[in-house]
Amino acid sequence: MISSMNFTDRVTELSQAKQSVLVLGVDPQLDSPQAPGVPTDYSLNRFCSEIIEACADQVVAVKFQLAFFEARGLDGMRALAEAMAFTRRLDLPVIADAKRGDIGSTSAAYAEAFLGRGNFASDAMTINPYLGADAIAPFLPYVESGRGLFVLVKTSNPSSGDFQDLPAPHRPLWELVAEQVHKWGEPFVGEAGLSSVGAVIGATYPAHAERARILMPRALILVPGYGAQGASAADALAAASDAPAPGVVVNASRAIMYAYRNDTSRKPPEAARRAAQAMRAELALALAQREG
Amino acid sequence: MISSMNFTDRVTELSQAKQSVLVLGVDPQLDSPQAPGVPTDYSLNRFCSEIIEACADQVVAVKFQLAFFEARGLDGMRALAEAMAFTRRLDLPVIADAKRGDIGSTSAAYAEAFLGRGNFASDAMTINPYLGADAIAPFLPYVESGRGLFVLVKTSNPSSGDFQDLPAPHRPLWELVAEQVHKWGEPFVGEAGLSSVGAVIGATYPAHAERARILMPRALILVPGYGAQGASAADALAAASDAPAPGVVVNASRAIMYAYRNDTSRKPPEAARRAAQAMRAELALALAQREG
After folding, report:
1. C-alpha of B226 from chain center
2. What is the pLDDT of residues A263-278, one digit of tens each?
3. Smallest CA–CA separation between A6 and chain B, in Å?
4. B224, A103: Cβ pair inside 8 Å?
5. Which among A78, A112, A160 has the least Cβ separation from residue B71?
6. Which CATH number applies to B7-291?
7. ipTM above 0.85?
8. Active-site residue B99, yes or no?
């Protein structure tokens, strides 16, 4: 069962209990000539579930990047459904990193797919704002019943400025998206003071993140780009706010799942656990230093 | 097997042979209190395959809206894979209406998922430009080997102007996206003079469509919004260019699949076929009148 507790309240509670803002990203890479996406002797299922179990007490949620499961076809989708169910049994929130968004009737189907009750049911999902308000609206009733959204505002990739940073006309496009996210989220502020309509702001753009916090004072911000994409813990926390809750959760995917490639004396789950422990601690320290 | 022929050349050839610019959209709606998404006595598989077969000689491609399959979980994904395979056996191009787009390594996985060789392999797919150039780049090698892309430029929904029409700063955002689509597509112009890096322009915005054609003279434009969303055939063809090929394909989904709800003396496939025949003819006439 998916929790009916307000999503941000649940994340905040887990964050305080575990002293963690870390999210485990499950991104089983494609097989390449350099390295297989799933370690030798592992099935995709076992790789995902052992990594999740090993990191469970270090993280506040598990984020699944849909692309890497879709790329493996029906076997991948079955593995996704199983890994999501496994995560729920560990009492961890599931985030579907789906970046969906379409005309209203289609967005309603995406919302049902990822925030409803089916095989891919999650506690929260990422959505793309390019289609505007009526593409977002069908997701909001699910927020009303406890789910969370993370709207792409400023993404972590090098080209994110191509359109997101355009002056539109007086301020960058992403700032206008951020203002809309704040408005969409106002009815959904929980007990911790945060809205379950959150945003994605890449750790690779800390100046944007500081400004984002001003534009979206209540948003729970999901931060990709820490770890494999090169951003520091301080960069990843640039949007953190003060008490009662930092309002930021920081994802790391490859740096945890593939830690065994640089930590060759350990098996994948053990290497992942050590990487997650180190990142959790590094983020907690950076957060304490910010507040201090 | 997916054809290795240039995507737009294949569509153009089918368009000339069938005197059609119609695309069948397969959008099996969610069950609602008003009506079931799949007709009584039909399975999802049978509903999709009978509609596709009944309309096959009227259309130039079949577009699958992923959301409606994802909303049905693993059963839906299996039905999607089967319906896509069935479509290929009828020698019709498959378009995955996925609207994906993410950071580079993730876009690479989406490209493999929908333009590669797996269960969801398609001839073309729709992608979302909000993340910028490096999120598009991983799709381009697949275009090199014969696949097609439709980049969301101006979508058909009522709120599409929220961000797409913002002055950014001197011209609307969507026009800047259109210019990029033109640049991304330049290396992939086929024998018919059209690029396999195409665009989505909603039929509900014909003035935008006329301007889009100027900005993207070579793009194959996929036009949603004709039929159930209320745009006329003339509106749907506003981006059509002259010889040798109109460079436009027009999607209709609900108006074909659910024609049986208004044509109650016929079974779903027969009602769909009649609706597709009427739309094909209406579009062909409107195209001839434009050229005349």
Report:
1. 12
2. 999 999 999 999 999 9
3. 23
4. yes
5. A112
6. 3.20.20.70
7. yes
8. yes
